[in-house]
Amino acid sequence: MTVPTSTAAGLDPAQIRADFPILAEQVHERPLVYLDNAATSQKPRAVIDALHTYYETYNANIHRGLHALSERATAEYEAARSHVASFINAAHPHEVIFTRGTTEAINLVARGWGDENVSEGDEILLTEMEHHSNLVPWQMLARRRGAQLRYIPMDDEGRIDLEAYARMFGPRTRLVAVTHMSNVLGTITPAAQIVRIAHAHNVPVLLDAAQSIPHLPVDVQALDADFMAFSGHKMLGPTGIGVLYGRESLLDAMEPLFGGGSMIRVVELHQSSWTGLPDRLEGGTPNIAGAIGLGAAVNYLQTVGMPSLTDHEHELTVYALDLLSDIDGIRLFGPPDAHERGGVISFYVGDVHPHDVGTLLDADGIAVRAGHHCAQPLMRKLGVPATVRASLYLYNTHAEVDCLAEGVARAKAFFA
Ligand code: PLP
After folding, report:
1. For the whole model, what pTM was predicted?
2. 13-40+306-414 maps to which CATH number?
């Protein structure tokens, strides 16, 4: 197969790679081949510099101080919120609530919205391919409130049966919570149709966008989603920062999860009142540096251009599926057609345990993930204890995919 040096869309991985200092590192005396992006992405210098600049030149707490540093920190923190809002085309910056990540964002909805709106006998619709972060909070809510979880039929490649889904709605359906892109199968779910069907029954939808927002252009208004959750660290930003996007009317009606500083209007000895959005849902000193770093990450992604990034990853995904499928005895999970999926590629080789494949790849400097990927129900559905997962991002190259395929073939031969 001919290997292009840059993609038709014009994204030049060589130029992009120069922005990521860690990609010049050696691992086990081999050049690092980083293919664990679904777990966390690497960070460009622009993000690292934004963190340094905050700590070195204007570190201060926000929203409180009347001094210059605090005013600058507040302005940069709120500018980051506006950048994120424009990145996902939210109608208002205050529809972006900073959290620690996807997990916290979903728990915020399960507590703040769920406890108010879900009662005994009510139903929440999920899929069997959810990450534990979009499963366990709903199990906890169901237990607290006596509600039921129901699972939308899907095939083993993660394609949702939309007709069966549409028939699941009844008077007790309260919420649909589904992934926008599977972190195991790579499947991109038909989010706009899922939302349209739910809204026809006046049921809100939460999209777990942890894997989609880093890789696809996402417009929350076009999707008409009610809630979306995502993590900064999977989209070039720092760890410990993420986002709950929510429609203003829903966020406004939500009970805060964290009582404390910054979220109050008036505090008396026996009662308090809350301030408005977004502060009402961000009690306590937030991750100021993290939010500023996420703002820088979003700027970086916008400069590269999400459509070119998506095209590049699509081209690499096609290439990787093609090379891997040539390996004798490999079982590739997720849709074979790359148009239905992103660059998350899970597989099982012969009867070699995924941990053994992961360990051998690591010896070659290739970082992949092997395990259940926080999706144990999906592993059970697929009939495997674990998979090897290679996941791509904008800085990955065709040569790295070659290394992966060669490494997997070597692992297969080693254990034959
Ligand atoms: N949802 C999906 C689809 C994920 O892939 C992940 C992380 O792997 C999460 C949720 C949880 O994200 P975090 O651990 O950043 O909260």
Report:
1. 0.97
2. 3.90.1150.10
